[in-house]
Amino acid sequence: QVQLVESGGGLVQAGGSLRLSCAASGRTFSSYVIGWFRRAPGKEREFVEGISRSGGTTYVADSAKGRFTISRDNAKNMVYLQMNRLKPEDTAVYYCAATLGAAVTIERLYDYWGQGTQVTVSS
Fold first, then answer.
1. pLDDT (tens digit per residue) in 13-45
2. Three-state secondary structure along 37-104?
3. What are phi and psi of 71, to 5 degrees?
């Protein structure tokens, strides 16, 4: 089992940057694929980025390509989402999630979720 806690959200102007962090508990953190998802007001939760167990492979939604970067530090049980050139449409609650499976982009296959952190981008 793993517990996840996100941090780093906040209010930022369009064009700015934020780095989200996801702290995980548990001794088997490196066994999990980690994904970042977001839910914007009035919309369904969507995949943003994912990272393999070793960190060697990342998966990026089209909306995040060229702007967001996911990384992980298994020694510290941490996953990060660096978000640059933020846009108002990036406003959402961002969640990190963990799965033992391989289908990185599929929300329903994730077993553990954090409580989310709010990101608000003003125009």
1. 999 999 999 999 987 999 999 999 999 999 999
2. EEECCCCCCEEEEEECCCCCCEEECHHHCCCEEEEEECCCCEEEEEECCCCHHHCEEEEEEEECCCCC
3. -150, 165
pLDDT in tens, 100-123: 988 899 999 999 999 999 999 999
Beta pairing, strands 117-122 & 10-13: parallel
Task: For residue 87, list its beta bridge partners.
Answer: none
Q: How many residues does the chain have?
A: 123
Q: Are 47 and 110 in contact (CB under 8 A)?
A: no
Q: Angle at Cα 11 formed by Cα 10 and Cα 14, nearest 5°? A: 130
